[in-house]
TrEMBL record:
InterPro entries: HAD-like_sf, HAD_sf. This is HAD family hydrolase. It comes from Reticulibacter mediterranei. SUPFAM superfamilies: HAD-like (SSF56784). It comes from the Bacteria. The lineage of its organism: Bacteria, Bacillati, Chloroflexota, Ktedonobacteria, Ktedonobacterales.
Amino acid sequence: MPTLVFFLDVDNTLLANDDVKTDLDQHLKAVLGPELTARYWDFYEQVRHEKEVIDIPLALKRFREETPLSQMDEHTYQQIHSLFDNYPFYKALYPFALETLRYLRTLGLTVIVSDGDLCYQAEKIVNSNLADAVEGRVLLYVHKQDHLAEITRLYPADRYVLIDDKPQILADAKKILGEELTTVFVQQGKYAAAQSPDGFQPDITVPAIGDLRNYTAGNFFNPKTAR
């Protein structure tokens, strides 16, 4: 029987990361005020530009090092650090995210393949119950599309399905894996209205992650049947 492996992104695919960032911003402003909060997000963007990936621990470290104790004492810093360490990510899951993972598991193997730092992103995936939902199959990279050969060696299958909110990642992966891969664009988060690069069209487009519960294994093997 032909086998399926689903590779699922996390941020804005299974979990509403844009909403998390907005919520954290409000909490930071309540503790730090608007000026120091803006400074933190400056470090956040600086680190993201340098490493090409979001790295919360490094952004917090730089924020501490570059902010005098006269502006932010150690108690306040530990308070904001705790906001990130103890954020209830399970509350930020998209509707039917866990149910969708359970459904897809009846069709094939589910694997979370996420971009992000190895510390904070891993905690997010565990604390949101996503790691349990995929039975611990979690891979973290700076750019997942650069590791597709490695990933497919780990999880061999007749057909791979990449589920992501970023058209560019889907397009890059399609160039590498070709007809072995079915690309699924989930129109959630800030990239929901993004234009597909270089004329690329995802094989399947859905407005929400929960919509994938209506798709059969045959739809993923032959996406034309899903249109």
